Every structure is written in C-alpha cells, then in structure tokens.
Amino acid sequence: MSMHYGDRHYELIKELKAALLDERKTAVFYAQMRDLSTSFAGVDSFAEARKDELDHATALTRLLERLTGTIPEEALQPVCPTEISSYCEGIKMAIQGESAARVEYKRILQKTQSREIQDIIREIFNDEEVHLAKFRILYDIECKPGYYAESGD
Ligand SMILES: [Fe+2]
Ligand SMILES: [Fe+2]
User: Fold this and answer.
1) pTM
2) How many CB atoms lie within 10 A of CB 15?
3) What domains are there in the chain, each with its CATH number?
4) Which residues surround ligand 1, an ion (CB under 5 A)?
C-alpha cells in the first residue's frame, strides 16, 4: 500500500515539475509575442497572460518546495525562447499550448486527493481557460481578414 502511495506521489511530483518548466517556457514565449504585437489587444493579452504564467511558476515552485523540501531544478534552469515564424502562427501556438496546459492540469487534479493541492491547481486551470478564450478572440481579430466587417460593426 505504501509503495503504491509512493508511486503516485512520485508521479504527481514529476507532473508538477513538468508543469513548472512549461509555465516558465510559456512566460518567455509570451514576452516574445508581446514584443511582436502591434495592437493594444495583442500587447495586453500577452502581457497579462505572461504575468499569470509567472505567478503560476511561483505557486508551483512553492508547492514543490513544500512537497520535496528543496527548490526544484525546474525553477532555476534556463529556458530557451520559442521559434516563431509569424505573429499569427505564434497565436496558434499559444492556443495549442493553453489547450495542452488544460489537459496537463486536469491530469494533475486526478492524481491528488489533497484539497490544498487541488485548490492551487484549479486556480491555475481557471487562468488557462481565460487565456485560451482571449487568444482565440485575438486570433480572430488579428488573423482573420474581414472579421470586423463580418461581425457587423
Ligand atoms: Fe499557466
Ligand atoms: Fe496560460
């Protein structure tokens, strides 16, 4: 029984570490996208999401520190910028990344019975939902010619 718990606990730690690294990579990527943005909507969406991802990275680092007793390597290791072929391609990648993050956090939620951990993860999950919705709208505004005309403004 205790072995089983140990395996599950180890799996949870592993997933949390992967999520932490993803958050940090995403924050760097969104800084790149913010700098590429030429509209207020673009700058605003990516700047705000970047701030959230940094908050998520901090929350996950604190959680992992409490669970393992040490600062995880994933909190400190350098992360590379993302290769972005075009602004709209970048928004598409952001949408895919947010969808993947939702799946990732849903899986983590299923791996723990701890209310405390679930609350932390659920809060992050909710932010990713907001990011996903914002980037989908941003894609329509920035990357679909005639979007405004079609929506009858
Ligand atoms: Fe995040
Ligand atoms: Fe996000």
Assistant:
1) 0.91
2) 17
3) 2-147 (1.20.1260.10)
4) 23, 53, 56
